[in-house]
Amino acid sequence: MDYDRIIKVIDDNSEEFIDIASKMYEEPELAFNEVKACEWLVESLKKHGFDVEVGLYGMPTSIRATWGKGHPIIGVLAEYDCLPGLSQKQSTSFDPVIPGGPGQGCGHNLLGVATLAGAIAMKDDLEQNGLEGTVVFYGCPAEEVLTGKVFMAREGAFKELDMAIAYHPGAATTVSKGLSTGLNSAIFHFKGKTAHAGGNPWQGRSALDAAEIMSVGANYLREHIEDGIRIHYSYKEAGTAPNIVPDRASVWYYVRAFSRDKVEDTYKRLVKCAEGAAHMTETELEVEFLGGCYETMPNGVISEQIFKSMNEIPPTEWSDEEKAWADAINKNSHLFHGQETPSFTDKPRYRDENSSGSTDVGDVMHIVPTGMFNTTTANALCGSHTWMITCCAGNSIGFKGMLRGGKIMAATAAKFYRDPALVKAAQEEFKAAMTDKPYNCPIPKEVPIPQPTK
Ligand SMILES: [Zn+2]
C-alpha cells in the first residue's frame, strides 16, 4: 500500500501540530504538573473527533482518547513532561532562558505531538477506508521520573490493548531491539538528634552520619553485584551548618538492572545497608519508595513493521540553514573531539545495543506487545538530556522529525489494521516471552500517586 493519505493528513495539519509543540517548548512543565500540555492535547483530540477522558488512573494530567470500534485495538503512548535544569534559548551554544529552569531536554513536546499526529492519521485511515479497529491515545504523565505509566498500569491502563506503538525523539532514526534497564527509586530518610557540634556532640545522633555510612555500605556492595547493575544516588538533605549536628538527612537512590528480579534483589540488599547504618548511628530510618519500572522488551514483529515504515515514509530533508545550525551545535557538543561529523544521522537502523537508561514504556511492553522507535529530531552529536535536545525541540529541525515520527507510527498501525495475522504473530511472540512471569506492577497499592503542585 502507499501512505500518501497518511502523509497528507499529517502535512495538512502540521501548522496545528507545530503550534502545540511550540507552546510546550515555551512553557515546559515538570512531571505530574503537565496541566497546560494536557489541555492543548485534549483540545486537539476533541477537535479531531476522539472520545476523550481526562484525569483517569488517579492522575489529573493523564488522557485516554479513543476512536473506532472492534479489534485490533492499537495504543499509542504520548509523554509531555520536561526536565529540570535544561532551559535553553534558540542558540547553538548552552544559553538558558532561565538559568537552572526547566526545559524540553528529552524532547517530550515532540513526543506528545508526534503521537497526537500519529493517532489522528490512524483515525483517518480507519475512517476513510471503513476498516474495523480502534485507536487508543494514552496521555502518560511523568515519564521523566519513570513512574507515570507504572501508576497507570497499576490502575488498570493498557491491558485493553492488542498492541502498542511508542515513539521518542532522538539524534538518530532507530527501532529499539536492545534493552533498557528496569529500576527502583527510593529516598532513604534518616532522623537523629540535634546538638551543638562543638559544645555537646555526644548528645547528638547525626542523621548525616547515617546517610554517609549507608552510602559507604552501598559502595562496598558494588563489588558483589553482577555487571550491568547500576546503583546511583544524590543527597536531598544533608544538614545545614557544620556546628549543628544534623537531625535529618535524606539520600535518593536508583537501582537499575536488565531484569526486575535483579532490581528487586539488589534493592533489598541496599535497604540492608540503610538499616545497618541506622542501627550503627542510633538514628531512625524511613524508606520512601517512589516507584519502579520494568526493563524494556521490544516486540520483534512490531519492530520489523516499524522498520519497514521508516523506509517507506520519505526521509526528512533539511535546508542548508538547518544543516549549518546543526553543524554549529555539533561543534559545541560534549561529544565532539574534532572528528568528522555529519550534520544529522538519519539512515534507519535497528538499535541492537542495550542502554543502561530506563523508560516506563518497559511496563507497557510487559502488558501488551509493544514496539518503540526514534526519529532524528536533533544534530548528530546530540546527547540525551542535554541543552542540545531542548534547543532542537523548539525549531524546525525538531518539528520535521516529529512529523516524520507521526507518519511512521500511522503507517505501522495501517499494516496491523489490515492484517490480523500480523497482530496474532506479535501476540504469540509476547505470550512466549511472558510464559511463567506475569506482569507484577513494581509499585505497590499503598504508594501514593504524586499530584500537581500548581
Ligand atoms: Zn524521554
Descriptive notes:
By secondary structure, the protein is of the alpha/beta class. 38% of the residues lie in helices and 20% in strands. The chain has 13 helices and 13 strands. An eight-stranded mixed sheet has the order 1-2-4-3-5-13-6-11, sandwiched between helices. Strands 7, 8, 9, 10 and 12 form a five-stranded mixed sheet that branches. It is globular and about 80 Å long. The mean pLDDT is 96. The structure holds zinc ion (ZN). Zinc ion binds next to loops.
List keywords for this structure.
single chain; 454 residues; alpha/beta; eight-stranded mixed β-sheet; five-stranded mixed β-sheet; 13 helices; binds zinc ion
Radius of gyration: 23 Å
Succession of helices and strands:
HHHEEEHEHEEEHEEHEHHEEHEHHH
Percent in helix: 25-40%
Low-confidence stretches: none
What sort of overall outline do the alpha carbons produce when their principal axes are compared? Answer: globular
Q: How much strand?
A: 15-25%
Per DSSP, the total helix count is: 13
Please describe the biggest sheet, giving its number of strands, its sense, and whether it closes into a barrel. Answer: 8 strands, mixed
What is the gist of this entry?
The chain is of the alpha/beta class. It is 38% helix and 20% strand. The protein contains 13 helices and 13 strands.
Outline the secondary-structure elements.
Blueprint: H1 4-12, H2 14-26, H3 35-47, E1 51-54, E2 63-69, E3 73-79, H4 108-128, E4 133-140, H5 148-154, E5 163-170, E6 174-176, E7 180-191, H6 207-221, E8 230-238, E9 248-257, H7 260-281, E10 284-293, H8 300-312, H9 320-331, E11 349-351, E12 355-358, H10 361-365, E13 370-376, H11 387-392, H12 396-418, H13 420-434
Parallel strand pairs: 3-4, 3-5, 5-13, 6-11, 7-12
Antiparallel strand pairs: 1-2, 2-4, 6-13, 7-9, 7-10, 8-9
The chain binds zinc ion.
